[in-house]
Design a protein that fits this description.
Elements lengths: L14 E6 L12 H4 L4 E5 L17 H18 L2 E6 L1 H15 L7 E4 L18 H10 L14 H25 L11 E6 L7 H4 L10 E6 L9 H19 L5
Parallel strand pairs: 1-2, 1-3, 3-4, 4-5, 5-6
Length: about 260
């Protein structure tokens, strides 16, 4: 776990908020969340293998590996008390996959929050981009603001040698998760509330496309449009909103208002 916030208020039920990053990234976007989410919440940002504190571990490209890696930790979290998940972009597909498995284990989260990611049955320009040659992939990354200056002109540069392979494997993982979600055995709608956050100017995941998450839950769905493009996970207002949702769902449970 990359970060954890603690307050010591006596008698307050603690909520664990697990955060999952976008493709090609570690969990740096969530560094400010511990201070922003408000009282009663522990923020646990979980990096995938191959980056951050896990940079020496083999990267994941398949659903089975993801579940073997993350599910035991999250089952322990679920047994300790109330928890929720937030996933950004590819992290939303990771979050959906884990929520499905946790619900199937009888320990669903309070809710799944997703940001900047269309639902599994829709596609984006990056959906099948994992194996594109660099000259085709880099312009797509540039469109969403994920290409640093000079990267396309430096074939042997550090960014293309270190970041691009991680991104390609993450896109392969996303493809595996999307395919599994479409399989009626391993996927289908959740019986968990879904909170959806869309960037107003997101070129990859427009707010209109994110409305279709409604098809992926038999429970409540909330759609919120936030300022910015695709990469808004570091927004303190987003963290505050998710924090309020955590406390609201716990209060609803304690008063018999449902999940």
């Amino acid at each position: 776990m990359a970060s954890r916030s603690r307050d010591r208020e006596a008698g307050t039920a603690r909520i664990t908020l697990t955060c999952l990053a976008h493709a090609g990234a570690g969990v740096a976007s969530y560094r400010g969340w511990s201070a922003a989410v408000g009282p009663g919440i522990d923020v646990a940002a979980l990096p995938l293998p191959g980056r951050d504190s896990r940079r020496r571990e083999p990267r994941l490209t398949e659903r089975a590996g993801l579940l073997a890696d993350f599910l035991p930790t999250l089952l322990q979290t679920a047994r300790r008390g109330p928890y929720a998940l937030y996933g950004h972009s590819m992290g939303a597909l990771v979050g959906y996959t884990l929520t499905r498995a946790l619900a199937d284990s009888g320990l669903p989260p309070l809710f799944l929050a997703v940001g900047a990611c269309p639902p599994p049955h829709t596609t984006t320009v990056l959906a099948d981009a994992a194996d594109l040659p660099d000259e085709d992939l880099l312009p797509l990354l540039d469109e969403i603001g994920s290409l640093p200056p000079g990267a396309s002109a430096s074939p042997g540069g550090l960014w293309r040698r270190t970041f691009l392979p991680v991104l390609r494997d993450d896109l392969r993982l996303a493809r595996s998760l999307r395919n599994a979600a479409l399989d009626p055995v391993t996927g289908g709608p959740l019986d968990v509330p879904v909170l959806v956050f869309a960037g107003r100017d997101d070129p990859l995941a427009a707010p209109a496309a994110l409305r279709h998450w409604q098809q992926w839950t038999t429970n409540l769905i909330e759609l919120h449009t936030v300022a910015g493009g695709h990469f808004f996970a570091s927004s303190s207002s987003l963290a505050q909103h998710v924090g309020r949702a955590c406390r609201g769902h716990v209060t609803a449970l304690s008063t018999g208002g449902g999940r």
